[in-house]
Amino acid sequence: MRAFLKRYLVAIVAAIAFILFILFIPAWRGKALDSMVFQTKTMLLVIPPIFILLGLLDVWVPREKMIRYMGEGSGAKGTILAFLLGSFAAGPLYGAFPFAAVLMKKGASFRNILIFIGAWSTTKIPMLLFEMAALGKRFALSRLAIDIVGIVIIAWAIKLALPSKEVNRLYAEAEKME
Amino acid sequence: MDTLLLYGLAAVGLALSLFKDQAKTKMALKKAWKAFEGILSQFLSVLFLVAAILAIIDTTTISRFLGSGSGFLGILGASLVGAITLIPGFVAFPAAASLLNGGAGATQIAAFVSSLMMVGVVTLPMEMKYFGKQAALLRNGLAWVFSIAAAFFVGWAVSV
């Protein structure tokens, strides 16, 4: 019971806050419940395939392979692979985080992890096609171009700013994952 | 459409895995479940957070924000709205397109689209769980600043 409470503390606090929110501000009640239903549907739809894929990745890809392709010494090859992996993904950004944790556990470098996250957030190919249709080729392609630059700069800046002690701690946490 | 792709990939992977090694496949599914259970609490809190925020900032509010705001303040506002909301592309793009056709500035729309994609304030509980507070805040802060720079570039590229 204690363990359960500790584990779900964040969710319980959020749930209580949400209930108070819809109780005390009836004007927003309908919309809040509507978006709750919509977001739950989206999550339920994208969660199963993402987690199945990360389970398969965890079991089938040996650590040595991951280190060779995306590890510390993987160079441009690793960067490109991280970009491709993120770009062929689908689903909201929150799907990328557990996936990134498995990549970390398998020995991908921190820079490549950050590039993967960046690519998942902004250069997803199915989304890009949709963006081109809606907002025009010029808009979508110039956004893509500048965001690729941004992803690399942001990854580099985080790597530079984050103490290596913290990076090691994150890797140790990922390793603990079963 | 892209979700279908995801399911296809997972199905093919699962079939191949089953064909090659049943025990390993079972282990993969177990790991998948464990990973899901590990993040479930954060998932749920994000869900509540998003529902509350999207009740306050709905599509009409966003449209008003992006449509009326001009100049740097408009760009700042658009990028802030993009940063704190979580809307899938298939909802956001058509809405952004109609605003663009209605005369909203391309720079503002680009600020919104870029920050919507790169910055995730509501998903911070999940990001922090895997990346820690420092890295998560750093990534979101940098991505937000960058989304404004990107907006100016897109605004310029569309106008030339």
Molecular structure report:
- Chain A has 178 residues and is mostly helical.
- The two termini of chain A are 22 Å apart.
- In chain A, 83% of the residues lie in helices and 0% in strands.
- By secondary structure, chain B is mainly α.
- Chain B has two domains: 1-41; 57-159, no CATH class.
- Chain B has helices at residues 2-20, 22-56, 59-68, 71-84, 89-101, 106-118, 124-159.
- The mean pLDDT of chain B is 89.
- Classes of the chains: A mainly alpha (178), B mainly alpha (160).
- Chains A and B meet through helix 2, helix 3, helix 6, helix 7 and helix 8 of A and helix 1, helix 2, helix 5, helix 6 and helix 7 of B.
What percent of the residues of chain A sit in helical stretches (DSSP H or I)? Answer: over 70%
Q: Give the count of helical stretches of chain B.
A: 7
Average pLDDT figure of chain A: 91
Order of helices and strands of chain B: HHHHHHH
Through-space gap between termini of chain B: 33 Å
Strand segment tally of chain B? 0
| Element order of chain A: H for helix, E for strand | HHHHHHHHHH
Strand percentage of chain A lies at under 5%
Number of helices of chain A: 10
Biggest beta sheet summary of chain A = none
The quaternary state of the protein chains shown equals: heterodimer
What is the gyration radius of chain A calculated from CA atoms?
19 Å
Topology:
The complex is a heterodimer of chains A (178) and B (160).
Chain A: H1 2-7, H2 9-24, H3 29-60, H4 63-70, H5 75-87, H6 96-105, H7 110-122, H8 125-135, H9 137-161, H10 164-176
Helix pairs in contact in A: 3-6, 5-7, 6-7, 6-10, 7-9, 8-9
Chain B: H1 2-20, H2 22-56, H3 59-68, H4 71-84, H5 89-101, H6 106-118, H7 124-159
In short:
Chain A is mostly helical and 178 residues long. Chain A has helices at 2-7, 9-24, 29-60, 63-70, 75-87, 96-105, 110-122, 125-135, 137-161, 164-176. Chain B is mainly alpha-helical.
